[in-house]
Amino acid sequence: MWKQILSKLPKKSSKNDHHHHRGREHGGGHSSSSSHASTSKSTDNGHGKSANSHTKNAPSGGRSAGNTNTNTNGGVFTPYEALPSFKDVPNTEKQNLFIKKLNLCRVVFDFTDPTKNIKEKDIKRQTLLELVDYVNSANGKFSEVSIQEVVRMVSANIFRTLNPQPRENKVIDALDLEEEEPSMDLAWPHLQLVYELFLRFVASPDTDTKLAKRYVDQSFVLRLLDLFDSEDPRERDCLKTILHRIYGKFMVHRPFIRKSINNIFYRFVFETEKHNGIAEFLEILGSIINGFALPLKDEHKFVEKDCKLADTVIRGLLKYWPVTNSSKEVMFLNELEEVLEATQPPEFQRCMVPLFRQIARCLNSLHFQTWLFWVSVRVFRQEARESIYYMTHFQFGYVIYIINISSSVAERALFLWNNNHIENLIMQSRKVILPIIFPALERNAQKHWNQAVHSLTLNVRKIFSDLDPELFKECLAKFKEDESKEGETKAKREATWRRLEEVGMRKAS
């Protein structure tokens, strides 16, 4: 029994172990041969089960070094010390030094406490700056080991659990969402350098795509897409640029990236209704769609490239048209205008009847974001008294922004006639469209409370009146006839209610 207990006690380190430990302290890392002798293609690259599955020979020794200034390495404590500069070693050793610096930067520090690991954080920051410069000025192809270590270092730093700020489960006004202060990641000074390094690495002509795709694989891409839910807009902007580069360089991943973004949209629409990166994803897809070549593949068909899809897309917009949210209605009208710009007469004529029934309802909307307008007036009251040329670019841009978002549903619908292509489509089919929207135009002209809507309505009426006065007269006569019938029906309904009230009063007495 005593032998068993003694056998479990730690043994004294040998002279070789002591010598190896001292060599690591002075060198700041391990030799390249010992570092990569055990690596293989089956490595999880830092984005599988754990970012630490290959830390046995790495100085990081773990996912985070926020609790100590040293790192455990096989039972030996290794100080976090700076490595020599690239300019201080011969060219033959730069590749090995590059790998050692990548391993050094795999340590993740705690940035919630600015007083912890100050020296180590500065060493890591300087090392990341050196790595960025090295990747930017590399002369010669990166080896497979170098590619693997870059992906492992990037994975260890950027792939983390996002902790979104709690949001109240209630309907929030669109302006409140715009005014919310974005959550800024305290680790951004280091994260930014990691993203910069990876961006330059992906874009570098010295990065072999065939080798890199083994490590920048589908699992890596999925975890990269998950980061788009970050509340830090700076991070989302970096991710957007990097995903563009990956999409451009790794052709094998293109269908997978499009499908994965589509799945995120499905989850957003049908499950979570919350995602910080939807705008960035839409921007990325817009850029991708613009780059599609003709003739289109089936999976590449969009309205901008295939106008025959316009009827299907417009009917889809009408199917999900907002009922109670005026801000969303304005957004739908914006999208509708973009789709109609790519629509040709045959497709337009197939959907124009249900389309202009909806537009007629929009024309009579009483919604207007008046308080937003008065906020802008108060903010820029002084500037309004002076010449507009004395306003700063920011102030002028903000005024234009306020004007854009303060438009009403009716006003936005009337703006469709300012688009020459859409106006031509409407006028070509005016004999069908004008009878549908004429009652809405006439009611606006008679009694809409907002002066801007009233003026725009008169302009649209004049366009129809000047182009086809006979059709305009017919519609006006039909409107007056229907109004007269509606008046008679209303009078009969009121008379019926009066009789019912009289009968009820007699019975009650």
TrEMBL record:
Cross-referenced Pfam families: B56 (PF01603)
Region annotation Disordered: where it falls in the sequence: 1-76
Polar residues composition-biased segments: 41-58
Role, per record: The B regulatory subunit might modulate substrate selectivity and catalytic activity, and also might direct the localization of the catalytic enzyme to a particular subcellular compartment.
GO cellular component, one term: protein phosphatase type 2A complex
Basic residues composition-biased segments: 9-24
InterPro entries xref list: ARM-like (IPR011989), ARM-type_fold (IPR016024), PP2A_B56 (IPR002554)
Molecular function (Gene Ontology), one example: protein phosphatase activator activity
GO biological process, one term: signal transduction
Name of the featured protein: Serine/threonine protein phosphatase 2A regulatory subunit
Native source species: Brassica napus
Entry's family note: Belongs to the phosphatase 2A regulatory subunit.
Compositionally biased residues, Low complexity: 31-40, 66-75
